[in-house]
Design a protein that fits this description.
There is one protein chain. The strands form two sheets. A seven-stranded mixed sheet has the order 1-2-4-6-8-10-12. The protein has a six-stranded parallel sheet with strand order 3-5-7-9-11-13, with no helix packed on it. About 25% of the residues are buried. It is an alpha/beta fold. The protein has four helices and 13 strands. It binds 2-acetamido-2-deoxy-beta-D-glucopyranose (6 copies).
């Protein structure tokens, strides 16, 4: 029993040591990759990586660590720095990150579709006031620790993924001032939502959605079938009359061969087509 306990403690200790060493090395790499992937015209990210002491990155502008003497990033606050670039995928190596604020910069391009693999422990995500485009990834619903999601003032389009209702810790979601359309997800009433200034969001508090895509498709298919039926009726009628014309011609030929009969019956001949 004592032996088991010893091994157990040893196991825990090595796991802890491993995770610390691993995370601190990769967190430095994370910031290096991040800096290299972003255009920083105002040189806000004057991060110097020559000091390898634990905790050195915790003094960097915008970087907040779990502990001041440990290179493990808790939050990245890079708001309003005039940064230009796409979503910095390098932050996947800040593996303990819980807060990311990239608001009020010039970020463009899509939010990665595997966002939950890049920032799995995120509680606060602020991408507002940028130029992010494309759809809100369904995978965001897998960021299960998410408390606040701020996406306002971007160029996001498409529908808001219904799966986001599975974010049980969500307190606030703001998607105002984008190009979103379609029905809004049925969030719990305690979730603070903001939807203003989009292309065509509807449902819930925003009022009933116009005829859904499926409904419209039904109307289109219905009209198509009606059209086909009408055309069939017309073609059928024309064929009916033209088929009557053939015997009429045949009859005419017979009558022509019989000249004396033509003289009598010619007056009665009726042209159909
Ligand atoms: C390196 O960083 C540590 C922790 O932030 C600091 O105490 C130390 O003075 C720094 N060393 C140099 C040479 O800047
Ligand atoms: C984004 O870039 C444009 C020019 O490309 C600039 O006019 C604008 O101020 C920038 N916005 C921010 C928030 O930095
Ligand atoms: C994360 O770190 C690993 C090495 O630990 C590296 O191979 C990988 O390219 C890094 N990921 C990104 C997106 O930079
Ligand atoms: C977004 O891009 C447009 C041009 O495409 C630009 O005028 C605008 O300043 C950008 N917005 C931000 C917040 O950078
Ligand atoms: C979405 O998240 C799940 C779980 O985190 C992951 O397994 C899956 O590969 C992700 N989807 C994409 C498109 O990356
Ligand atoms: C996310 O997806 C991109 C390709 O779209 C891939 O290169 C990257 O490795 C993925 N990141 C993770 C953490 O799965």
């Amino acid at each position: 029993m004592a032996k088991f306990k010893f091994y157990y403690i040893f196991f825990l200790q090595s796991l802890l040591l491993h995770s610390i060493c691993h995370s601190t090395v990769t967190d430095v790499l994370c910031l290096k990759t991040l800096k290299a992937s972003i255009n920083d015209p105002n040189n806000f990210l004057n991060w110097k990586f020559d000091n390898t002491t634990e905790g050195s990155i915790c003094k960097f502008t915008g970087v907040e660590c779990w502990h001041q003497n440990e290179n493990r990033v808790l939050n990245l606050r890079l708001s309003n720095m005039g940064l230009v670039g796409t979503f910095p995928r390098g932050i996947e190596n800040c593996s303990s990150l819980t807060g990311l604020d990239l608001s009020s910069n010039n970020f463009t391009g899509p939010i990665p579709t595997n966002i939950s693999k890049i920032i799995p422990f995120i509680t606060s995500l602020d991408l507002s006031y940028n130029n992010f485009s494309g759809e809100i990834p369904v995978n965001l619903s897998q960021c299960s620790y998410l408390n606040t999601l701020n996406l306002q003032y971007n160029r996001l389009s498409g529908e808001i993924p219904w799966e986001l209702i599975h974010l049980t810790r969500l307190i606030q979601i703001n998607v105002a001032n984008n190009l979103l359309s379609g029905p809004i997800p049925a969030f719990r009433s305690s979730v603070k939502t903001s939807y203003v200034n989009n292309m065509g969001l509807c449902g819930g508090s925003l009022g009933e959605c116009p005829e859904s895509g499926k409904g419209r498709m039904g109307v289109i298919i219905g009209s198509a079938i009606a059209g086909v039926v009408i055309v069939a009726v017309i073609v059928g009628s024309v064929l009916f009359f033209c088929l009557r014309k053939v015997p009429a011609k045949k009859r005419k030929k017979e009558l022509e061969e019989n000249r004396w009969a033509k003289n009598i019956k010619g007056a009665k001949e009726v042209k159909v087509c």
